[in-house]
Amino acid sequence: MDIKKYLHDKRDLVDTFFREYYARSHTPPVLQEAMRYSLFAGGKRVRPILALAAYETCGGDPEDIVPYASTLELIHTYSLIHDDLPSMDNDDLRRGKPTNHKVYGEAIAILAGDALLTDAFAILSDPSLSTRVASSSLLLALRDVALASGLDGMVAGQVQDMLSENKEPDGETLQFIHSHKTGALLRASARIGPILYGSSQAVLDALTAYGNSIGLAFQVIDDILDIEGDTEEMGKTAGSDVKINKMTYPRFYGLQKSRDIARNLIAEAKAALSIFSSEADPLREIADYLLTRRT
C-alpha cells in the first residue's frame, strides 16, 4: 500500500472536520484565532489517523468516526501549547512557526489550550455525530481518552518530566515519563477504534499492545531526533532536550542502544497485530513510517 497517500487522505478527513467545526465565529475572536493558529500549524495528525486505522482494522468505515478520532488531535495540540510555555519547556518554535504564546501572549495561549481540551470532550460526548457508534461505546471511549490525558496519563508524565530535569536518569523513571507523557495518548488512539466498534476483548487487547509499543517507540524516536535532527527539518528547536538536561533515552542508553530499542518496540507493535490479516496493513505501515520519520 502507499502509506504516504493513506496518511494524506486520512489527514484530509481530519482537517476537513476541523475546518467545518471551527467555521462559526465565536466571541471573543482572539480565542478561536489562537486555537486555530496551533491546530492548523501543520501537524501530521498521527493520533487521529491511528484511531481511524484501528477502527478500519476492526471492520468499520473510518469516515464514521472522524469527529471522535479528531478529538485526540485537539488534546495533543492543547498539550503542545502548554508544553511550550515559559513555565514549562520555554520553546520559541513549534512546527516551524513561533509558538502560541509568542504570538498571542501567555494568558491567551493557556486559555486556547484549555478551550481545545474542553472541545475534545464536548465532541467525544456527542452521540449525534455518528449513526454507527452506540452511546455506550462512546462513553467507554470518552473515559479511556480522559484517563490517558490526565492524572493517570499524559499530565502525570509531563509533571515527572519536569521534576526529572537535571537529575541523573534511571530506566524506571525514564519509561514512566515516556509511557505517560507521549505513550498514553497514542495507546488511547489505538484503543478507541475497537472500543467505538464494539470489538471483542481479544481485538482490544491486541490493539492495546500495539498502542503501548507504538507510544513508547514514538518518544524514543523523538529523543533521537532532538539530537540528530535540525531545527528547519523538525519545525522545532533541535537540541532543546539537551539544553535543559531532560531525562531521555539517548542520555541514559546512548544513541545506538536507543535506536535498537526503537526498532525492537516497532517489531513488538507489528507482532501484536498477528491476529489480523491484511486489514491491519495500515497499522503495520504506520509503525514502519514512525521508525523512519524525520520530523
How would you characterize this protein structure?
- This protein has 295 residues and is mainly alpha-helical.
- It has a single domain (3-290), classed as Farnesyl Diphosphate Synthase (Orthogonal Bundle), CATH 1.10.600.10.
- The protein is built from 16 helices and two strands.
- Strands 1-2 form a two-stranded antiparallel sheet.
- β1 and β2 form a beta hairpin.
- α11 packs antiparallel against α15 (255-271).
- The model has no long low-confidence stretch (mean pLDDT 94).
User: What is the annotated CATH architecture?
Assistant: Orthogonal Bundle
Work out the strand percent.
under 5%
User: How many helical stretches?
Assistant: 16
CATH class: Mainly Alpha
Classification by helices and strands = mainly alpha
How many β-strand stretches? 2
Indicate the topology.
Blueprint lengths: L2 H19 L7 H11 L6 H12 L8 H18 L9 E2 L2 E2 L1 H5 L1 H19 L10 H15 L4 H10 L7 H11 L1 H15 L3 H28 L2 H4 L5 H4 L5 H5 L1 H17 L9 H12 L3
Antiparallel strand pairs: 1-2
Which features would summarize this protein structure in a list?
295 residues, mainly alpha, Farnesyl Diphosphate Synthase, 2 strands, 69% helix, globular
Summarize the entry for a quick read.
With 295 residues, this protein is an all-alpha fold. The chain has 16 helices and 2 strands.
